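Troubleshooting log. The previous structure file for this entry was overwritten by mistake, so regenerating from the original sequence record. Sequence copied from the archived sheet and checked twice against the printout by T.R.
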Amino acid sequence: MLDNFSGATRVYFIVGDPIAQVKSPFGVTQAFEQAGRDAVCVPAHVATADLPAWLDGVSKSRNVDGVIVTVPHKFDCYSLCTTASPRAEFLKTVNTMRRLADGSWHGDMFDGLGYVQAMRLKGCAPEGQKALLVGAGGAGSAIAHALVMAGVRELAIHDPDTKRRDTLVARLASLGTAHVTAGSPDPAGFDIAINATPIGMASTDPLPLDVQGLSRDTLVGCVITAPAVTPLIDAARALGCRTLTGADMFAQVRDLMVQFLLESTPTP
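Regenerated output below.
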């Protein structure tokens, strides 16, 4: 990898705060290489207050073609895009930004699509299922939207930020495709239970779900990639549940992001 790394190599950033826990620069760079592109993904640790200035500076570099967005910048980066996909427009959040030929940024959100694809690969079809989602942030809102669009029968959303939760519930309910409600951390009676929060990254974190309510038939998912096996996933496996890790999700999201980023290459 990067045997031909040179001044001609195209640059893509992944921006977040913090960023040290992110494993995707290697995987995304590897995907670029597999696609036959001379490109590299570079991590950028940027505070929220500095994000507009950082992107403005990045935009002045003519060899930068795209930005992958991670926590907590997915909502803020949406507002910095000139255009966005209908999915991102509905969610008001992006996880990938592609630079257009005129220098402007076009955004899209693939967390939800990637998560549903990963679920299907685990043998869990969302159609007609009852799902509980913890977390109404950037990734959580995207997963919620994808679950509703994929045909879940019922979706309950739990988030301590009740304003953010209720806003998302109302917007998803307005689609008229599923029964969407405010939920709790109790997964009893659900076919699918997903943690879409950072809870579980630190060893001292509490469990985001009450695992006592889990059934062996419940698919338990978590978006966290480090640690690879979170305490929630570990507890679910001990109960005999099927599980879906952050790495399972990222493998699908990565391919969608790379495809989007390479759809159009700006003029140097």
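The two ends are 23 Å apart (CA to CA). Archived copy saved in two places this time.
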